[in-house]
Amino acid sequence: MKPEEFNYRDLQDHIEVMIGKFGLQNSVKFLGSIIDHTDIASSEDERVKQLIKLTISKSIEVFNLKKATFYKSNLSEYKDARMACYYIINKYTQISLGKIAEVFNVKRRSVEYFEQKCKEMLSIPSFYPTYLQRHRAIEDHIIKYISTLN
Hints:
GO terms for molecular function: sequence-specific DNA binding. It comes from Kordia algicida OT-1. InterPro entries: Trp_repressor/repl_initiator. This is Chromosomal replication initiator DnaA C-terminal domain-containing protein. The chain is mainly α. It folds into two domains: 36 residues; 110 residues, Chromosomal Replication Initiator Protein Dnaa, Chain: A (Orthogonal Bundle). It contains seven helices and no strands. Helix 4 crosses helix 5.
């Protein structure tokens, strides 16, 4: 599959959507934080822990799940929520898949599998519209949180 090619018009359109969604001030802060810090370093343990907790709690909220069964349930909604967590945590931190597996008390291979599955699902948004909408809601919240960090 050929990778998607973007041009300056696409960039401008996305910036306008970002400003419309987050406001000018937050958009500028976010872009500045991307330039300065592309992710949260694992040496910043407290920030990483906060981001993980926030990602999990937002996933539970967005997927409308019960917190008590979040880590163990085999229902597809719970698996999808955990999959979104694996992907987002991996994308915005420098912690390894093995450490993510420890947080969720699963095998590293499970995290690796679901992280890859998430990438595939996100690459075909028309096949998974509900998942994509939920994933975006979680990721937008995390991006907003990261943009507020110093």
